[in-house]
């Protein structure tokens, strides 16, 4: 694996030779190269001043070089050249990321890149954004006067950014062990709406790859494809991530399975790195020595969360927030009477189980549906057994494409301080969560301020109650442009995964990423593992051509009878983000064509 080090003055002549060989790789004639030579020459006294670094292999062979020139807050990527024999081996990517890292350390907030047209695709794939061309030195070292293609360069810019403050606070800014105990967390509530086999929970445990911006190890219940972890690490610039998978194929006992392996438990807990779970459980407390306080999770209850919201609103200061009425029906007969009364009044109703995930246990029923079913009792017979909450339905905005479902994410650290992460726009279809988008402009401007203020108030209350960990607050928008909080989740969530990836990509590729997580992208056919790896690699390449990033988030769904993938896409603009998602969905659906059969008929 190549490593980066500072260049030495004595290497100036050899580095100039590398630059000229790299420039000649693109087929320029001798006359053009001769004209460029004075600008491309590296002099011994410039090596330090131009902040030149080299990438070298384990044998000490120099494979490429890069320079960071100028002073903060604006600097230039003056040189980035790779030995022709090393092109395509990740050397350019390594050098570019090193330049961004050094730029952050030196306070640079705008990096200008005037690229040779042949290198434009590389910079686009690295996350640089096209910008108007100006009279600065090219990224290949040639001046505008000597530039090729009639003097036209392709200008890009990047915004070097440190890891977000909240991300540093989440895991101390370092690496962490990610424990995918989704099934274990769900099972502790014993709600009848949850999947007893926990198949879905084990799929969602794959999101453990993204529980923090930089993992050191992943602990997973089911076996995952090795090609998946390799691609995820490549896309997010991770190295040295250990994977412990296949620990429990059925049932919720992931952490118990770890504890039953003393050597593994010692390895995970003895490295001095934080362990990050999907959510807090008694086994996790035993593994980490963290006191288990089940009362911390009391606001996972939708009824308890409603009471918390009510108390916060009673204190005032949240004019953009309204709370829908909610009644806890002591019996099914009581729920029947409440539903029937609302139906007679022509009102829609939300019926909720005390607990549930991803929309499970939540049903919206219109007055017409009650009549069509033959009455309220007939409707309730179809729902999971257990206590029911009968809640007022919040009518949404008249515009069908207006923002409807939003969420706030934050966490309470070990010292009891609440941290704001941000707000996200969720994709909720027929009451079921399908994904979320985070990043600049993802949440409408009118909604952001009340969401952040109310979410912060919830965080303070959770901290005071003794809770420590990640949480979110979900909202629906009403027809008047107000927000109604509907529940809290005292665990990591799909939107939290998007926030983690956004923080990583901002630090890796430059600030301003929009990230979308889509829980379910249908595959046209079930594929063997090797062909799934090929599909994901091709989707990653195609998205990179758009300046976007594709990361497969949930690969194990690809092996279900009706196959699917959970995916993440990221870009610096809504247009590129939408284009990348459309490309991924069409590419995933098209794999069935090679077999000539729909997914439902796939072997």
Instruction: Tell me the β content.
Output: 15-25%
Treating each run of at least 4 consecutive H or I residues as one helix, how many helices?
A: 20
Low-pLDDT stretches: 136-150, 599-603
Cα gyration radius (Å)? 27 Å
* Coarse shape: elongated
* Largest β-sheet summary: 8 strands, antiparallel
How far apart are the first and last residues' alpha carbons, in Å?
40 Å
Number of strands: 23
Helix/strand-derived category reads alpha+beta
Percent of residues in helical segments? Answer: 25-40%
The residue-averaged pLDDT reads: 91
The largest sheet has its strands arranged as 20-19-16-17-18-21-23-22
Give me the oligomer status: single chain
Describe this structure in words.
It contains 20 helices and 23 strands. An 8-stranded antiparallel beta sheet has the order 20-19-16-17-18-21-23-22, with helices on both faces. The radius of gyration is 27 Å and the shape is elongated. The protein is of the alpha+beta class and 603 residues long. A hairpin with a 2-residue loop joins β17 and β18 (432-438). The protein starts with a strand and ends in a 13-residue tail after the last helix.
């Amino acid at each position: 694996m190549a490593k980066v080090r500072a260049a030495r003055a004595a290497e100036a002549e050899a580095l100039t030779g590398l630059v000229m060989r790299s420039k000649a790789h693109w087929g320029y004639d001798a006359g053009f190269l001769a004209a460029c030579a004075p600008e491309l020459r590296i002099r011994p006294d410039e090596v330090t001043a131009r902040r030149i670094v080299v990438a070298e292999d384990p044998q000490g062979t120099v494979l490429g070089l890069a320079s960071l020139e100028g002073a903060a807050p604006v600097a230039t990527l003056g040189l980035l050249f790779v030995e022709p024999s090393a092109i395509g081996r990740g050397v350019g990517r390594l050098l570019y990321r090193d330049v961004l890292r050094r730029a952050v350390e030196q306070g640079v907030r705008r990096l200008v890149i005037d690229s040779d047209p042949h290198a434009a695709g590389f910079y686009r794939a690295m996350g640089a954004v096209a910008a108007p061309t100006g009279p600065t030195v090219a990224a290949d070292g040639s001046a505008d006067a000597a530039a090729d293609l009639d003097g036209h360069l392709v200008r890009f810019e990047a915004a070097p950014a440190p890891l977000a403050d909240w991300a540093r606070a989440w895991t101390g800014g370092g690496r962490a062990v990610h424990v995918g105990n989704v099934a274990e967390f769900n099972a502790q509530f014993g709600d009848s709406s949850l999947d007893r086999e926990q198949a879905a929970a084990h799929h969602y445990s794959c999101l453990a790859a993204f529980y923090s911006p930089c993992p050191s190890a992943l602990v997973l219940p089911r076996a995952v494809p090795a090609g998946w972890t390799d691609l995820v690490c490549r896309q997010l610039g991770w190295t040295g991530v250990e994977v412990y998978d296949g620990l429990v194929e059925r049932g919720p006992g992931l952490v118990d399975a770890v504890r039953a392996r003393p050597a593994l438990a010692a390895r995970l807990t003895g490295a001095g790195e934080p362990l990050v779970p999907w959510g807090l459980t008694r086994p996790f407390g035993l593994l980490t020595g963290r006191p288990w306080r089940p009362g911390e999770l009391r606001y996972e209850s939708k009824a308890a969360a409603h009471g918390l919201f009510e108390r916060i609103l009673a204190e005032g200061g949240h004019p953009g927030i309204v709370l829908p009425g909610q009644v806890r029906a002591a019996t099914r007969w009581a729920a029947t009477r409440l539903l029937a009364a609302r139906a007679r009044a022509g009102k829609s109703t939300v019926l909720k189980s005390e607990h549930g995930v991803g929309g499970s246990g939540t049903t919206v029923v219109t007055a017409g549906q009650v009549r069509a079913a033959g009455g309220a009792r007939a409707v309730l017979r179809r729902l999971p057994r257990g206590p029911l909450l009968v809640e007022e339905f919040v009518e949404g905005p008249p515009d069908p494409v207006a923002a409807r479902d939003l969420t706030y994410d934050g966490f309470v650290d070990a010292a009891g301080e609440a941290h704001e992460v941000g707000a996200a726009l969720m994709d909720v279809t027929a009451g079921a969560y399908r994904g979320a988008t985070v990043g600049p402009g993802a949440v409408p401007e009118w909604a952001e301020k009340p969401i952040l203020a109310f979410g912060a108030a919830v965080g303070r209350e959770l901290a005071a109650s003794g809770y420590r960990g990640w949480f979110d607050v979900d909202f629906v928008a009403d027809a008047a442009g107000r927000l109604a909080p509907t529940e809290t989740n005292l665990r990591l969530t799909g939107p939290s995964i998007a926030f983690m990836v956004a923080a990583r990509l901002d630090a890796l590729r430059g600030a301003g990423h929009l990230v979308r997580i889509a829980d379910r992208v249908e595959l046209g056919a079930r594929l063997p593992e090797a062909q799934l790896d090929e599909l994901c690699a091709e989707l990653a390449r195609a998205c990179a051509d758009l300046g976007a990033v594709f990361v497969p988030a949930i690969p194990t769904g690809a092996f279900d009878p009706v196959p699917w993938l959970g995916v993440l896409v990221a870009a610096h603009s809504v247009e590129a983000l939408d284009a990348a998602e459309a490309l991924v969905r069409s590419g995933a659906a098209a794999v069935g064509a090679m077999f000539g059969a729909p997914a439902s008929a796939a072997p």
